[in-house]
Amino acid sequence: MKLNERSVAYYATCSSPPDKTGFLLKKGDRNPAYHRRWCVLKGNLLFYFEERESREPLGVIVLEGCTVELCDSESAEFAFAVRFECTRARVYKLAADGAVAMESWVKALSRASFDYMRLVVRELEYQLEEARQGATSPWAKGRGKRPLVHGEGVLSLGNLGKENGVSWNKPLGLANGVGEVGVSGMVWEGELDDGDGEIPPPIPPRRKTPGGSLESPVSPGTGCFSKLHDWYGKEVAELRVEWLQSQ
Amino acid sequence: MRFNEKELVFLSRQPSERAAELGMKGPKKGDVMKRRLVKLIVNFLFYFRTDEEEPIGALLLEQCRVEREDDLNFSIVFLDEAERKYVFECDSKEQCLEWIEAIIKASYEFMRKNLVFYRSEIQRLTGKDPLEQYGISDETRFQASSGLPPLPPPPT
């Protein structure tokens, strides 16, 4: 498959500020040894260069549809893996030079997806609208119009970064029963309808629909959040059981 | 430059923001307009032969400019090679405008700019940083630019 490689490489080195840079050990594509690479994370792309001064990247990893996990490695300390969901996909093994760096990279990479950014943008769009209308809290009484309730969001923003080893950035794919979920600490913790409004309600997991749209499929079509919560909550609880059983 | 092709092909099969059969002409001299299935997924534009499952190619939609060429045609130009245009032909004026808007909004950097704007507006109106409650205020990706002038382009 072709890719506009020159322009992709340009994005890597152009003046737009990167999200994270640093040296990582990367396990070779063909040979099993770890090589030190200068890594640049921009948006949903992880570029790796032979040297910090190299003008062009050796390669790029598109970070969509992946999970980032800590892993045990006999050849490297502070190792983590970027694992993709497609069949026979590669697992990219990387290692940082210390625990702090490792945690920082794992966090950054698991929040690198386009959908995560889109989710945060939409949340802020909503909050801005509320702020402009002079509502006192994001979870004000006008809940009928909340765009995220209809299933487009995927992550509970409040849950991110809490769990170290198992962070994730892919849609849950509830409809097809994909059980690989690192949703520990569960999405629905406390504060829902009590209206204290400190934390907006968690966002229902997103489903992948077979057709060509990002719209949510079946949802109870109700404006009542607690009903919607219960409906999604059942599936999430099942998924959690599945995940726990697979541990 | 290496890239994770298998995973990108897998991405091309995911639900798209927008998909349609359009005319597409490549940037090389002598390229002609051909009918392609074009799919917009996250910040990639995939293009397929109309009867094939695997995409011919993908365009990363960062650092590019989308322009209206005429009523039915729009073009994508990448900033590092501004003379090379990919031209797309739509079936209607509306479709053309919709695609232009969709592609502009498809860039990660575009979303980031919006986020930075919304964040500072919310802060201005409410006095609170909206990202604080999620514990993500310090994430690099959500910061406004450092305020430094842009770096000069790398030597060619």
From TrEMBL, chain A:
UniProt GO cellular component terms: clathrin-coated vesicle; cytosol; early endosome; recycling endosome; trans-Golgi network
Boundaries of every PH domain copy: 17-114
Segments of this protein annotated with the region Disordered: 193-220
Stored SMART domains: PH
Gene3D superfamilies, per database record: Pleckstrin-homology domain (PH domain)/Phosphotyrosine-binding domain (PTB)
Cell compartments where the protein resides: Early endosome; Recycling endosome; Golgi apparatus, trans-Golgi network; Cytoplasmic vesicle, Clathrin-coated vesicle
Record GO biological process: endosome organization; receptor recycling; retrograde transport, endosome to Golgi
PROSITE patterns found in the cross-reference section: PH_DOMAIN
Alphabetical UniProt keywords: Cytoplasmic vesicle, Endosome, Golgi apparatus, Phosphoprotein
Biological role: Plays a role in endocytic trafficking. Required for receptor recycling from endosomes, both to the trans-Golgi network and the plasma membrane.
Protein name: Sesquipedalian
Lineage: Eukaryota, Metazoa, Chordata, Craniata, Vertebrata
TrEMBL record, chain B:
An example Gene Ontology biological process: receptor recycling
Xref: SUPFAM superfamilies: PH domain-like
GO terms under cellular component: cytosol; early endosome; recycling endosome; trans-Golgi network
InterPro entries the record matches: Boi1/Boi2-like (IPR045188), PH-like_dom_sf (IPR011993), PH_domain (IPR001849)
Domain PH: 15-108
Protein name: Pleckstrin homology domain-containing family J member 1
Source organism of this protein record: Electrophorus electricus
Gene coding for it: PLEKHJ1
